[in-house]
Amino acid sequence: MYKHKDFISTKELTLDEIDFILTSAEAFLEIGKREIKKVPTLKGRTVVNLFFENSTRTRTSFEIAGKRLGADVINISGSTSSAVKGETLLDTVRNIEAMSADIITVRDSHSGSVKFLADNVEASIINAGDGQNEHPTQAMLDLLTIKQHKKDLNGLNVSIIGDIEHSRVARSNIHLMKKFGMNIKVFGPPTVIPKNVEVLGVTVAHNIIDAVKDADVIIVLRIQRERMGKLLIPSNREYCQIFSITPEIMKNAKNDVMILHPGPINRGIEISSVVADSNRSFILDQVEAGVAVRMAMLSILAFNRSGEL
User: Fold this and answer.
1) Of 224, 239, 104, 112, the residue nearest 169 (C-alpha)
2) Domains of the chain by start residue, with CATH
3) Is the peptide bond preceding residue 264 cis, with omega within 30 degrees of 0?
4) Percent of the chain having pLDDT more than 70?
5) What is the largest CA-CA distance in the chain?
6) Among 137, 143, 233, 251, whose Cα sits 20 to 30 Å from the Cα of 302?
7) Dist CA 132 CA 166 (whole Å)
8) Which element (helix H / strand E) includes 217?
9) Strands 258-260 and 217-220, how do they pair?
10) pLDDT tens digits for range 160-201
């Protein structure tokens, strides 16, 4: 069981909690295949999506998840919130909470801000991405996607390729996957590989062939130029030549390797369109799994709040 008020990080999750979330999400996958994609699980509950960073997949996924569960869903972006008038993030969330919001999903550019909010409000808080720290529901949907196709998670070889330094997706996945004894390699420009990253229990590949050749799963990351200085990576052309996942590079990979990407995809830079659209790509499966995982987390937290669901 998962008995916490909030969902902030994958770091402290137990295997039992992970299994409970995945099992719940698997049950919700079926709802997306129905003609009527709705259940009354959260009828009468209010979910607020508060996003201070741009997002398409995550915010839409949370919105669809809430509505499929029957909740009243409100979306608020940073540009339309009172934060632009100088209101603090905590004051914004306390005001939303005062309107009887039950669950608030928050995406913010400051690492640790979502945990701070969770510690200072009574509403349940879900971390939809905080700075360079974590993106726990993305890691859970990645794990669900892998489980759906690989069945056994234990001992899989996973390569994470791209901008590791600025990737909250990478951090959440590393914390989560190490619990299953997965062997994780990271690869990317040396300037965006964190110093002493090996302390997280990962190894560093030194070329793209080494990164892909034994992998059961390859997670390709977007170059996050909005979070880095201009001199941390080469030009797009040079990046593509050295670090991109192309059909030629994929000749060195296993035939049944899974390609994942958290999105948005920069086609022709970190991954070619041919690979992104191939039968090795499970990127759209991730999107489908994302709705199920977020339905699971919303329903679990709502149950924890009331004990009546």
Assistant:
1) 224
2) 15-134+287-306 (3.40.50.1370), 136-286 (3.40.50.1370)
3) yes
4) 94
5) 56
6) 143
7) 5
8) strand 217-220
9) parallel
10) 999 999 999 999 999 999 999 999 999 999 999 999 999 999
